[in-house]
User: Fold Bifunctional protein GlmU from Desulfomonile tiedjei.
Amino acid sequence: MDNVAALILAAGKGTRMRSGVCKVLHAVAGRPMISYVIDAVRACSPDRIALVVGHQSEDVIKAVGGPAIEFAVQEPQLGTGHAVMAAGNLLREYPGDVLILCGDIPLIRQRTLSDFIGYHKLEASKLTVMTTRMENPYGYGRIVRDSSGFISAIVEEKDASDDHKRITEVNTGIYLAHGPLLFSLLERVGSDNAQEEYYLTDIVKEATKESEPVRGFKLRDSHEAIGINSRSELARVSGVIWCELREQLMESGVTLLDPGSVYIDSTVSIGQDTVIHPCVTLSGDTVIGRDCIIESGTYIINSKLGDGVRVLQGSRLDSAEVMNGTQVGPMAHLRPEAKIGQNARIGNFVEVKKSTIGDRTKASHLTYIGDASVGTDVNIGCGTITCNYDGKQKHRTVINDRCFVGSDVQFVAPVEIGQGSVIGAGSTITRDVPPRSLAVARTRQKVYALREGQGPGPSSGKDRKDEDCLLTRRIGLPEPGAKQEPESSDEDRKP
Ligand code: UD1
Ligand code: MG
Assistant:
């Protein structure tokens, strides 16, 4: 858009949020609220986009910074008028119109801004304010009009008389002002008000004094102008955006069984014919392919899922990758850098961290796989654990293709299992296993006959001790407390 520079105010702390995080960085459906305002502005293609930052300026710049955005720093933050003044070094000489917006109105649309600019230009206006009607105008600046319908003042809630408070036409915080006029009016704005701040809204009064007519452009859908000042407004606006996102997804061919119960951030993409069950949260940089099923209670963040993936009830995926046709869960936990191949299975109570799992490999029950490379067509038995941490460092476990790992195996890393090997159930594997081998590492089973009255059954602790003595005598084991000879184990035997 020729002859329009945009200026977004984002320096305030947002005291009413009661937060350690600067207001404009609070997430709305997964993105900082200010990024929605920037997107809407950018879509209007202004000559320039400038942002006034102040509170936590470095964080704000990091979150939104891009080559096309200029920054002005407002320090300290003495009100919205003071914020625009802080951008004087960038825009004072700008000969066109300055579109000013607050950074806390993420529902604003590009179309509305374009219409606003169109109206301002058509009327050859030098100062136009976007207004709207709110059933409950509490907290907004009230629009005072003169007998000709021009705006003569904007009165802030804290400065408003009872008469002003009854006005339902409010200031959206969006203005278009001819650059040179804007900065000359601001020089006359003082801070003699309830908040002792330099209000941007006071340029209206100053323009009226100069006999410069101030026009109002009425926004029909007042929702677009909801400014987020509190946590409840944050929830309200997020709800509107989530609702829109769900509609867009369903429009694009995604089934949501209970739309109102799922939370899908604006940053997530989902392929056609995927079905999302109730109570699912999908956030961050998550991509879900086609024909997937995501069952209830699942939380997925920053993860990539291929086509035909099933994530069963109650699973959590964080920065993980799951390829086509794989099934995860129920109650599985994929942690950062878990990479699961195609047609694999990660079953219930299985946790995978910083590990690759090959195609068609199965770990179906109660397993921890951390810092491991598991090949293709491997079967990991129930209760298997990679012991990756020695208290100081993490070590890797490598299980090559086509291995069969029995139940309840511990791999004490670093350790490597050669291709096609079999690990006996209950083994503690501390040494590498060559390819095509059987490794068994557990104590040999012993069997004793129980005498009449021994074994399970109701008896006091004293009786039990007597029974133990009887048993040890009968089979010739050392008395309890006596020094024991080391037992030979299967580990020392050839399989
Ligand atoms: C402001 C308007 C009010 C309007 C409402 C619309 C003023 C005085 N009031 O009130 O008329 O109805 O927006 O949402 O302008 N900011 C700075 N520096 C500062 C103070 C604020 O950059 O020193 C930024 C904030 O980061 C925020 C924006 O300006 O993005 C608006 O500030 P906020 O405190 O939310 O103003 P409101 O009370 O909502
Ligand atoms: Mg506000």
